[in-house]
Amino acid sequence: MCTSAAAAEEAGGGFLDSVANVNNAVNGVVWGVPALILLAFVGVLMTVLTKVFQVSHFGHWMKKTIGAVFHDKHVTSHTKDKSISQFQSLCTALAATVGTGNIVGVSGAILMGGPGAVFWMWVMAFLGMMTNYSENVLGIFYRRKNSKGEWSGGAMYYLRDGLGSKKGCKTLGRILAGLFSFFCLVAAFGIGNMTQVNAISGNMQNVFGIPTWVTGAIVMILVGLVVVGGLKRIASVTEKIVPFMVILYMLGTIAIFFINIGQIGAVFSSIFKGAFGMEAAAGGVVGYGIKLAIEWGMKRGVFSNEAGLGSSVMVHSNSNVKEPVKQGMWGIFEVFADTIVVCTLTAFAVLSSGIIDLNTGVLTDAFSNLTKNDLVATVFNKQFGVIGSGFIAISIALFAFSTVLGWSHYGTKACEYLLGEKNTVPYRVIFVLLVFGGAVMGDNLAWDLADTFNGLMMIPNLIGVIALSGVVAKITKNYVDRHLRGRQIEPMYSAFQDIQEEEEAAPPTDEDD
């Protein structure tokens, strides 16, 4: 009997080991160098085709995004139909992207790739701005309304109706759309839910001594109250919590910036030297060569802002905007805010703290046992004492909670595409119940599998963006010609004639200026 039980346990362990080995191999591809090269290629391609839009029209997209929040009611006003405002779409997208990756991800990049990794995060963000822009442009251009009157858009729709409309690509488009939706649905349960809640419960226990099951129960109730109400309620919550959490975290990191402002020269010097391998190799596991700096900087940059994964476009497509380029510009700002601003402030806080040796890029002897999970908390503790640790625990809780809300919508849209609208309610119930499971579960294979499925989303998505890159270029030129050069030409609002006519007949707004 014991022998049989042992054999069964051994067989089970062997199976899990096999799954882990396969997952590691796949993960090495989807988050490895080949995928990073593909991501960089798409970013370069879209930057060139749009004539470096993120730089050449910097003032315009800043004015039409964050600048418009303060004077254009069309950007912030709540809608009476099933769509959400442009500001709400941004906040919901940022809710999903501005998460633990901005804290833990940046720490991991620095620990594994040295200060030089920060430079390559910037490079990936610069290119990712136009990848995210292109996703949003395509999302608006190919979106449709479901039976409830809600917009349904995302990579699955521009793969099916965009790529699928090309000669001989109908089946390919549908297959890739289905794969993207499946990968997204699985990732929503893992990366977008359980891993985030696990980060919350772990921090609450370590800093405040709150049992994980208590945190899990509270978060599950809060998520349930929001998610069951659908996108309108999610957007209503995120437009309040996201600005608060981002500003709160920025105030903390900005305070450290001014406390350590004397280190600004040394910090940026170490970033640029490390980026191009101009420092001596530190040796050991951490390493400090240019390969690690590039690999970890680019990898964590993408993990943080999700440009190229095709995730945030699913909420941007629900915006009340009619100009694809207008929502595309919100995509540029999303990456700018997430990586150029928030991640940079985190990096400076870490590198100016004295915990990292700027000459070698490794942890100093007194802090050699730190991991990516507790590095930023230690930095804040070093500067502000126990208040600093509590501040980071609360920041992670807010970041992770908002990420769960954002990803609940992504999973809903994937479920709607795969299984139909009627099955979105059971999906939401399962999603909410898994929140508690994520809080009480320890590290296991499920985390690694979720990370892999998250990365798998990018492959069909990037194929779609490349295939439809010419469409993005045409829509961009059409917008620039009309709005910036004053040419009287027909706008490009939608790939579908009925929606095109509907948008053309809609009353003009400040957006049309």
Description of the molecule:
With 513 residues, the chain is mainly alpha-helical. The protein contains 23 helices and 2 strands. A two-stranded antiparallel sheet has the order 1-2. The chain is globular, with a radius of gyration of 23 Å. 53% of the residues are buried. Mean pLDDT is 81; it is low at 4-9 and 280-288.
- How much of the sequence is in beta strands? under 5%
Number of helices: 23
The stretches of 5 or more residues where confidence is low (pLDDT under 50) are: 4-9, 280-288
State the major sheet: 2 strands, antiparallel
What is the arithmetic mean of pLDDT?
A: 81
How is the quaternary structure best described? single chain
Brief account:
By secondary structure, this protein is mainly α. It has 23 helices and 2 strands.
Task: Annotate the secondary structure layout.
Blueprint: H1 2-30, H2 33-49, H3 53-56, H4 58-64, H5 73-76, H6 86-97, H7 104-113, H8 116-141, E1 144-145, E2 151-152, H9 155-161, H10 170-208, H11 212-227, H12 230-259, H13 264-275, H14 290-305, H15 313-316, H16 324-351, H17 375-384, H18 386-419, H19 424-440, H20 445-456, H21 458-467, H22 469-484, H23 497-505
Antiparallel strand pairs: 1-2
Helix pairs in contact: 1-20, 2-8, 2-21, 6-12, 6-16, 6-18, 7-14, 8-13, 8-14, 8-16, 9-10, 9-21, 10-11, 10-18, 10-19, 10-20, 10-21, 11-18, 11-19, 12-16, 12-18, 17-18, 18-19
